[in-house]
Amino acid sequence: MIEFDSEQTRQRIGTRIKDLRDEQGLSLRRLAFMVGMDHSYLSIIEKGQANATITSYVKIAIGLGVDLKDLFDI
Amino acid sequence: MIEFDSEQTRQRIGTRIKDLRDEQGLSLRRLAFMVGMDHSYLSIIEKGQANATITSYVKIAIGLGVDLKDLFDI
């Protein structure tokens, strides 16, 4: 069976989200509010500590105004 | 707050996964086995009926031998 480090992948995705957010000068609380997400949950997504669902990532992509695939360009 | 149709997005992602799988002549059961996933769960992911976690999509991308972002090129 295929082995892989999912936490490391989630961390790289989280860093990507944070970079995209910082580029736009959006605070974590602002983005979280925009997408109807608790800011502490968005924080742990950015740290790669949450095995979030695809719907959460779709919301984040919409809030950042980027294509979904851009979040995963890691 | 941002409204969007997450089920439609999940369906488009599921169709993308199925297309990538079909291109490689991989059966659903074969891909599911390769990534250690129940084939019925992979089936509902392909139909867009599961709000799967990012780890599930990472496994599928690895099983298909594609970059994670390719699953979301929808």
Task: Record the SSE blueprint.
Two copies of one chain form a homodimer.
Chain A: H1 6-23, H2 28-34, H3 39-46, H4 54-64, H5 68-71
End-to-end Cα distance of chain A, whole Å, is: 23 Å
β-strand number of chain A: 0
Indicate the radius of gyration of chain A in whole angstroms. 12 Å
How many structural units, i.e. domains of chain A? 1
The ordered H/E elements of chain A are HHHHH
Provide a count of the helices of chain A.
Answer: 5
Task: Report the β-strand fraction of chain A as a percent range.
Answer: under 5%
CATH architectural arrangement of chain A: Orthogonal Bundle
Biggest interface, residues from each chain: A-B, 29 and 29 residues
Unreliable residue runs of chain A: none
CATH class assignment of chain A: Mainly Alpha
CATH superfamily of chain A: lambda repressor-like DNA-binding domains
Q: State the helical fraction of chain A.
A: 55-70%
The CATH topology of chain A is given as 434 Repressor (Amino-terminal Domain)
Largest sheet of chain A: none
User: Which assembly state applies to the chains in this document?
Assistant: homodimer
Which terms would index this structure?
homodimer, mainly alpha, 434 Repressor (Amino-terminal Domain), 65% helix, globular
Task: Explain this structure.
The structure is a homodimer of 74-residue chains. With 74 residues, chain A is mainly α. Chain A has a single domain (6-71), classed as 434 Repressor (Amino-terminal Domain) (Orthogonal Bundle). Chain A is built from 5 helices and no strands. The longest helix of chain A is centred in the N-terminal third of the chain and has 18 residues, at 6-23. Chain A is globular and about 35 Å long. Chain A starts with 5 loop residues before the first helix and ends with a helix. The interface between A and B is medium-sized, with 29 and 29 residues.
